[in-house]
Write a structure and sequence with these properties.
The protein is α/β, with parallel strands linked by helices and 359 residues long. 25% of the residues lie in helices and 22% in strands. It has 8 helices and 17 strands. The strands form 4 sheets. Strands 9-8-10-11-7-12-15-16-17 form a 9-stranded mixed beta sheet, sandwiched between helices. Helix 6 packs parallel to helix 7. The termini are far apart.
Length: 359
């Protein structure tokens, strides 16, 4: 009995360590003996080998944690909800707050969309962490290539005061990683944003594991912005691939205003998630309410023709067809357009005098 108890505690400790590494243990787990089945829950609908749902409580009887097959699922307060029900449901509740989340831009031209999406998430974070600033860390290379956030537009578009966004420019990647790791452990920041360009070797699985561990310990989100890089393995539980989406026409009382540009839109693809399958979503950012909005159907704007350009010229000459059964010799020369009459025939053109290419 003693050996079985020791073995059970060892297995439970190993499961706890694995859950910590995978980032699936945001709350406390009780010993297996403290778990009890939820009344009415059955195993039907689960694949073979998956245990039924169980629940554990702490000493105060609150802070419930649902456990399925040894893994914990956090409560709704542990996620940053985007407000788009389909996306939040696909992500299992939203982006994890106490974790490393990766926002990926496939090309350099997507840097503006990635930064705008990160600022949108920062606006949602600051609504819950009022009074705390956000630290944006990057290298001199990425800031020179993608630019810096425009201070005057932060408050208007995202509701972020210029003093709430702190920028740290590091000369090298190793310095930016060190600053981000040290800032991720502090509770003085509402969130930490680390922007990296390309696929550097120093940003490996070990470095991202340290960032993820610091974010979990401090209960703060860390956003990793990847600009024009490969989808390398990272410790981030969620990877979102973001690019710009066509904006809808500006809405007015009389209806959509033709030829106008409405709210900024983002195309978000779920590249990696432990709770969701790959999917694509179109999100619009409402700069007035500082929140995401659901894209309505068939709301993609069509770019009108330029007003300074004349209408396309008609085709030169008339379109003629040979009469049925008539030979080219029987056609009057006056029926042939002048432009075609001046062109040399195939036999007269010097380029066709050579022999044909065999095969």
């Amino acid at each position: 009995m003693a050996m079985s108890a020791v073995a059970r505690d060892t297995v439970f400790a190993l499961r706890r360590q694995i859950a910590k590494i995978e980032g699936t243990l945001p709350e406390r787990l009780q010993a297996p003996g403290a778990l009890k089945a939820i009344p009415g829950k059955v195993r039907s609908g689960f694949p073979s080998g998956i245990a039924e749902k169980q629940i554990s409580t702490d000493a105060a009887g609150s802070d419930l944690t649902i456990v399925r097959h040894g893994l914990a699922v956090a409560s709704a307060d542990a996620f940053l909800q985007t407000g788009i029900e389909r996306l939040d449901t696909a992500l299992g509740g939203g982006l994890p707050k106490a974790a490393l989340s990766e926002i990926h831009g496939l090309a350099t031209r997507d840097a503006g969309a990635v930064a705008g999406f990160a600022l949108s998430l920062a606006s949602l974070i600051l609504k819950q962490k009022q009074g705390l600033p956000i630290l944006w860390v990057g290298t001199a290379e990425i800031f020179h290539e993608a630019g810096l956030p425009y201070a005057r537009g932060l408050d208007t578009l995202f509701g972020i005061a210029p003093g709430q966004l702190l920028l740290s420019e590091a000369p090298k990647l190793v310095d930016a990683l060190w600053i981000a790791e040290e800032a991720a452990r502090m509770t003085a920041f509402a969130a930490v944003i680390l922007e990296i360009r390309g696929s550097p070797q120093r940003l490996d699985l070990t470095a991202t594991r340290r960032l993820h561990a610091r974010a979990r310990n401090a209960d703060r989100p860390v956003l990793l912005l990847r600009q024009a890089g490969e989808a390398d393995p990272t410790a981030a539980p969620v990877r979102l691939i973001v690019s710009a989406a066509p904006s809808a026409s500006r809405a007015t009382i009389a209806g959509p205003l033709a030829g106008s540009i409405g709210r900024p839109a983002f195309k978000v693809d779920i590249g990696k998630s432990r709770t969701a399958l790959p999917g694509q979503f179109i999100l619009e950012w409402n700069p007035d309410e500082h929140a995401f909005a659901q894209r309505t159907e068939n709301s993609v704007a069509v770019v009108p023709a330029s007003g300074r350009r004349a209408d396309p010229a008609p085709a030169s000459g008339a379109v003629l067809a040979f009469p049925a059964g008539a030979s080219p010799a029987a056609i009057s020369p006056t029926a042939i357009p002048p432009t075609a009459r001046d062109q040399p025939s195939r036999q007269q053109h010097p380029a066709h005098r050579g022999p044909r290419r065999a095969g």
